[in-house]
Amino acid sequence: RSTRRRHVLPNYIDNDSDSDSDDWRMKQVNRTRKLQTQAGKRKRIDRDLAKSEREASDTDDDGTDNKAPKGGNGGSAEELEELLDKEEKKKVHRGQTGMWAKQARELMKYRDEHGHCNVLQRDGSLGWWVDRQRQSYKKLNAGIKSQMTPERVKILTLMGFEWDASHMVGGKKNDEVWMEQLEKLKHYKEEHGDCLVPRKYASNPQLGKWVSYQRTQYRNMQLGKHTSLNEERVQQLEAIYFVWQPKRGRPRH
Q1: Same-domain status, 94 and 155
Q2: If you average pLDDT over residues 126-150, what whole number do you get?
Q3: pTM recorded for the entire structure
Q4: Which of 140, 158, 230, 251 is the most exposed place for a label (fewest CB within 10 A)?
């Protein structure tokens, strides 16, 4: 009986191959975890933004509160002031405090004078700040580290801030807003017989401020200073007998 000798081949273990495989699997696990974390963060951001937009939806395009009684202070104005107070107390970069809220208040003043928040970059530092808020908002929506927060989104949204500026190239949006206010002034004239809207006009506070601002801009034009008025706008106002210098003590509606 012949005996066959079995040859056993040595089992070589490729340690490098197994190590590479483990590294690849670990990278995939870490990548999956990172994506899950980002997805969860994005959901929280979307939820907070949606809440901010819902709560701010009670404001008109001019920033006034739909639910507020005519001539009164709405809850949105009080809420906005409360949010700004909280923002002012926050510590920010380089040990400064409340810088963001300070700029936001400057934007509020601009809105009260112009009837909108669409400050262009060419209008100075406030315009640059407004542009940065839109850029930060885009980063926030993309899940990228940003100085924008849901609280700040809420503040600006309550002010009537427009996040999409793509339609404002060349100041077109400002022209549209100006024409809207002019139409409101025409309706006022039809009802009252003149364009003497009080500075604190209860039925439409924004219109009263806008009319006052036109007179200020007209004075600037007369003095050769920078102004948002031009000859075309002056002619449109004078066509409805706009009074540039109303007499003091004249009865108001």
Answers
A1: yes
A2: 91
A3: 0.44
A4: 251
